[in-house]
Predict the 3D structure of the following.
Amino acid sequence: MNIKAEKIAGYNGLTNAEPTLPGSHYVDPDHYAKELGAIWYKNWIYLCRASSLERPLSYRTFTIGTQKVLLLRDENGELRAYHNTCRHRGSVLCTSDEGRLKSKLITCPYHNWAYSTAGELVRTPSLAMPDGFKLSDYPLYDIALAEWGGFVFINLAGTDAIDFEGTFERDNAGLANWPLDDLVSGHVYQKTVACNWKVFWENFSECLHCPNLHPELSALVPIYGRSIIAEGDDPNWADHAGDSDPKFKGGLRLNAQTWSMDGEVHGARFDALTPKEQKAGQTYVTNLPSVFVVGHVDYVRVVRVLPIGPELTELHSEWLFPAASLEDPNFDMANITDFATLVLDQDADACEMNQQGLHCERHDTGVLMPEEYYVHMFHEWVRGQLGT
Ligand code: FES
Ligand SMILES: [Fe+2]
């Protein structure tokens, strides 16, 4: 049917044949550099759970595009973030992914300039100081930091950073009833995917690929098996308005309660969820460009995306549980973690497949189908960020 002819009330689908972003925007190093500057170094970027730096003086390092970030917990328990770059001649300061400072000083491994955890240059090993040199002129480059629900975000725009409040869909979105601060990490998945970071978000934004690539997920969430995400994605939705079958209404298949291999709850259930949240099966909150969080009735999963090259993206997924689940010796965590691992691997393969084809010299733009309205929203967001 031609949807354009008659826009149907309550229908979500795109009515115009919207072009995708140009193929070159997924492979061109210059365009990638432009996106790093306009998007990744301007927005709030999710790094990790605050609880992953529990002890004073523990640190972690991260790479966002070309930027090296050092996150540490100081001796007073405060989190701090700096560019992982020495003010002397620019060496990285901490060379491991994670560790613990040996003292209250951050000492550069190259010529031993030493900084306090507050970022002040405390000493250099030089026998004499040059004229006009003041230690206080060379503090570490500090980075804006914010915490929400136990999640740590940074913003590389420094004092120009946009306000963190309001950037995350957290006031209006559905995770207020999940005890995010108290959750404990039980499992981590990390993969380097050979695709541009935008390919990940496009894949995340549609279910046109679900019947093809996610047979298990399509069986668990029957509406996904119809290539759509929500009731209103079907132009004929009104014909089934009175039908409660999840294949029309969304939500999990009959008798399933969560995303797990057997559809069963494992461990403790969150007790403050509304009946609607329990029935939904999955509740997503997204903060472009780096993270989405999905709440289920028995766990929460946080997926972080970081660009590490024009065609290389680091995908990181962490499963967060109530402490009681992890303390239960009979807790079948694998039943939960195996499921999304399967889906993530399928999506990672799809992203790599997509990336390879994008090199075609003759592929200027592709075109979006009605079900891909979220992909269009993502493209509009990217265009807006780039000012194009
Ligand atoms: S570069 Fe760090 S002390 Fe020289
Ligand atoms: Fe997928």
About this structure: The first strand starts at residue 45 and ends at 49. The chain is about 20% helix and 20% strand. The chain has a mean pLDDT of 95.
